[in-house]
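Input sequence (295 aa), recorded before submission:
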Amino acid sequence: PRFYARFPRLYVGVRDTLFRPLRRAWFAVLSALPTRAGIRSSLAAPSLRLARLAAGAREILPWLRLWPALLPRGWVRARGGPRHVVMLVVSNLRIDSRVERGARALAEDGFAVTVIAPDISTPRLRESPPDWGPGIRFHPLPESTASFFYRFPWIAGTPLLDAALAYRPSTFHCHDLTTMPAGLAAARRTGCACVCDFHEWWSEGVTWDADRKAWAPHPPWKRRWLRWLERCMVHNADAVITVSGSIGAALGRGPLGGRRTVHLIRNIPSRDSLVVRSHASLRDVLHIPPHRFLL
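Predicted structure, token format:
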């Protein structure tokens, strides 16, 4: 008070320029100091981060087992083996006529055929395997092994790889993009050939939109990822087949302008093999005029 009474202006100046800023700085330092709870959480944070890293590693490490699928065609020369084809597929086999026709055709040509698939059919394959004829047998996997199909990266079928490595066939036949990394990795590790069969153009498909509760085209990032995978599989496989000429033309275009032969095996029978009989015109039988569209 005496100092303020004798030097009021100096007191106000020192207070505003020195003491108040120092006081604010002091309280800022005090507020920045951790509390007991903060110290406990900071000590626990590294262990939480390590736990998250470990969980992420457990998810990612299985993908790394598929790296041989990225080896270009010709790096590992396929060795001739027994006339045995191992098919890899994620599908309800009881209604997948393309897989059945392929297995039957190979068996008729003298090949033994083993079909490895998650058991998602009804009734279960273990309980009642379908009868596709002699020379064809099934290797069903637990239903849970198909779960990779629904989560990123959608192709990490390591259970399929483990099952495939139990065989040394002449060829692995991979049905659709979801099984191709596992089949190609198994082929490279065992010295077998690998055939990739595209039932559809996977990168141009749809994704379930949980917000809209509807199917929607793949988001751009997912489409680019799947397209890159398709190019790798097409380039690295020993042979590639698909269901239509337009899909084959798109898959056969390489990223650098190169071309890859994609063989066409349709899902419809050849018209040359059909017995054609003469029938009356359906329009005449039903009295439908020519200008009326017939569906």
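Checked by second reader. The longest helix spans residues 36-64.
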